[in-house]
Fold:
Amino acid sequence: MVPWQSNERPPNMKPAPFSYHRPESVTDAVAMLSTLEDAKILAGGQSLMAMMNFRYLAPDHIVDINRIPELTEIREDGDAIRFGAMVRQRDAMDSPLVQALCPLLIEALTHVGHIQTRNRGTIGGSLSHLDPSAEMPAVFSALDAVLHVSGARGDREVSIADWSLGFMMPNLESDELLVGITAPCWPRGHGYAFLEMARRHGDFALAGAGALMTLNGDGSIARVAIALTGVDTGPVRLRDAETALVGQMPGEALFAEAAKSAEAVAGIDDVHAPADYRRRLAVVYTRRALVKAHERALQGKA
Amino acid sequence: MSWVGSSVPRVEDPDLLTGQGQFIDDLHLPNMLHAAVVRSPYAHARIGKIDCSAALEMPGVHAVLTHADLPRQFRDQRLLLLVPNPGIRHPVTNYALAKDEACFAGEAVAFVVADDRYIAEDAAERVIVDYDPLPAVSDCRAALAPGAATAHAGRDDNIAAELPMAFGDIDAAFDGAAHIFKESLFVHRGGGHPIECRGVVAAYDPAMDSMMLWSNSQAPHMLRNVYAKMMGVSEGRVRVIASPDIGGGFGPKVLYYQEQFCAAAAARQLGRPVKWIEDRRENFTSTYQERDQYWDVEIAVDEEGKLRGVRGSMIHDSGAYVPWGVITPFISATTVPGPYVLPAYRMDVSVAFTNKVATTPVRGAGRPQAAFVMERLMDRVARELDLDPAELRRRNFVQPEQMPYPVGLVFRDGNPVVYDSGDYPQCQEKSLELADYDNFRARQADARAEGRYIGIGLGSYVEGTGLGPFEGVNVKVEMSGGVTVQTGGTAIGQGLRTMLGQVVADRLGVAPEDIAVTPGDTAGVSIGIGTFASRLTANAGPSAQMAANTVREKLIKAASHLLEAAEEDLDLAEGRVFVKGVPGHGKTFAEIASFTNGMPGFALPGGVVPGLEETSYFTPERSTYANGAHVAEVEVDIETGAVTILRYCTAHDCGTMINPKMVEGQVIGGVAHGVGNALYEWMRYDDDAQPQTVNFGEYLIPMATDVPRVEQVHMQSPTPLNPLGAKGAGEGGTIPALAAIAAAIEDALAPFGVHIAQAPVTPHYVLALLDAARASGTD
Amino acid sequence: MGEKREIRLSVNGEATTREVEVRWTLVDFLRHELKLTGTHVGCEHGVCGACTVLIDGRSTRSCLTLAVQADGCQITTIEGLSPAEGLNPLQQAFSDHHGLQCGYCTPGVLCTLTEFLQDNADPNEEEIRIALSGNLCRCTGYQGMVDAALAYVAARKGSTV
Structure:
């Protein structure tokens, strides 16, 4: 949320006038985005509508993509799950497929807002909005997801690592929309954890960490991924820590040492907390997520 | 059976549960127009030309009022200040629309009226105001420093008021003291933030030259009186109806605001009803709130920890105006002594203007701050003298046999602060028992062994309630036989209709759900004060009892004639008066009402007065003092500073409980505000006095996952000051919560030697304290 | 006037066709066009939950939904949850357990709990509080609502033998 800082325009409420469009297919949506000036995509509305109600945003055109059936599917795609961009967060949580193959997403979603917001909010919407404190970008960063974009110049794929171009700026042209996300699955029984510090239930994370882990036969770490939210403009993958952890025997001390690399994150200053506090949280939650992911990895092997 | 004292189901509930409540925005009048407000974006600015032309050109826009368009009767009058105090140096309030100077970001500058709110907002965006920014002062301490920018142009300083108060020989108290401890404390309280924002509908009848205002005001008579006075019209030509239902008050809805006058002005000008409903953004920037207090205090005690004196100074942030005088800091300063025997006291209060919205009471009204100060001082003494905090308090409580106990100060009602009844030691004992306090240290040791940090904290308080001078109640039996009750108090969710229904039911033998209570209509009762300061039960309750008694007497007297029976042989039940033992021989209320209404020409029999109606104004001699003791148990995550409340226990004494379940609800609701105060709520401004937290994502109100289950035990020390023996119960849950929670956090972190000296206690404040303690080696 | 669209929807079981301005929020449409004033506005930015209604059975913030988006949907408001006379069992539990004070947040709370209690057969206190976390109340401290929900669940379990 952007605080009222403008000294030029006093704030007003209720959405400003706009023209409303409701495409029924991705092709229609792309055509609209290509021809309309100053258009915004309306997905779940949980972010956009609040900003429009405050007149922080007053687009000339709204393109409502809530009636495009092809965007709501969840399906297995080889060793991955393919989510349509308009999969409601609630539907992802209820999906047996996601519960079985992508438990990190499920756990993260328990921290995202409330029942009412998850009933409407979408996976793709959160990824396109790219709030620095949102959980979805960190989850899909840990999963090394690939994002599918459709636009006037055709379709393209963007790896999650290339998705955030800056503060709330996804790798999307104005005539493109996110249509799907492919998340490679980790093997059954893998360890996972999504933990965050928020002031109240469902609030944006002051800092949060998502961790995935698999173990070798001797208990050493075979593979690990850690992604943070709330500490920079976009999700932060702790690749150096991951590299250092592979092949090591797990333990509190090892995880605490690995977590120290989270100190280097930029942090965010806002009304809730200063950046250095968030940096400290990043270290704490990295360690805690690794510990928990390891616990679950052990349970998964049993 | 007695209705009073029984947890009668609330008569308000069926309508509210089915969405049939009538809140201000539910009112739809024919031809009604809708308003939006243009507000100053600058905390301090001169206002030059206002260009409304673009706004007025828009289809659907009917008017844009600026200061110049206000009725000449009140255009250049500042809103009346109803609570003067000789300590106020500059009794300034704002105009209905800012004239040539805006003094806080959010001050109303223009009032746009259109066919609907959407159009009104579009038009408001197009009103061009020529602002010339002036230096703004944000922090109340900085405001009092020499050379500070002044919140009001042309003034020499930012001193709104100076309120010294003292009793006893404070110098002797400190000179001879075995121990003296100093504390510097910062307490922030935010805003009331009822879920329903403010609102008003104004309708003017030119044929009768009468103004009708509906508003979710906690004090409709006050609004009527102020409007009538400022307009120079008879109060009989102004009717204010507090919305039948109000979505929470908590204090800020007591006051009258710019927009109510603007709506009235627009309704007069346009000849159509005008509605203005505040949005939440406006609620953050233009509704009165509590805010910052800085205290520098010292406590003097003897070897045993018995109090000798407390002295110090306090700076209170008034905001840009003093619409409710200096009530909040006054109450804070007079509440510090609390439930303790304090031989000497001196507090020098400075109230500072800043370029922010004005501060006025929010639930607790300055007492949470006072309780925090006194309880932090007591905890400091306990720690330094190595005494159990509960034992230290035991040594200092006012004892029940000392009642009535004069504290030595004068309260806001001009009367001496005299605690009328209560057993403070017993109250603390009950709270400790409920909290299993005696076994806590063992539990704490076990937790520490597991690497968990839990702590326990106490908060005791005394609260002035039942503020006079009165709240009248009219009780009437109508021709239909139905019983109606009217009062100037308003229903803000506290169950007023049920409470008054219970009191009247006991006298008239009619069930509460059959009594129609209409609060908050200035046409129902001629004069009134309003709902605030936990005053209605102690004022309107006894008024209702008096009025119902008189109506009962009238019913009996008339019935004795009709039934040819002696008055002492008659009784009332189920809407009838009948001969005791011969229930068949009686008259219905309707029959008696018809009789006392008379027939033209026929005299009423001797002793029978016309009608079955009475308006009574109980006038309490002075305020009555409720009290309580809270015990909070918390856990602190020392890696993140996060605080979880594990248990929360309260002992509460509000005298006679008219409806115990409703009292319990008030305590829990009060504690929820206290939890917000202690951990979450912080209304932030930057150095230019720009509001930084202007929505519910930035300003944090406790959720269902943040408020603990509140365990309660109740005592009833009836007050001798009203016939019901009842004291107020609306704020007691809030008052000591901050103190108890802060103490518990400090206790949890005792191994580190941290000291909690501010509220709210945020996680990163906790970490900062832990860092400082480690660095200084106090752990 | 702003751009308009016709919408066809069902509100509390009644089919309705209306022309709406595309920028109207659903809550404003319900309250001011359909005069269903039981749903309330508290913040207009999707945090307080006073505006919660059920859209196709799912609790939703109607301040964050455009009226045009309700085209083809079934909307249930507090008026639709209430019987013609008296109170439904959840409402009765709220009355029995002092689950409301000013009543402003209550319709939103009841919509949220209606969905939650349909989807969850035997929630405990913690789960109920989490479910309620999206509805802010400034009066009750939530305890009465939690007690009401627990009582409702217990009665429902008791009556399904």
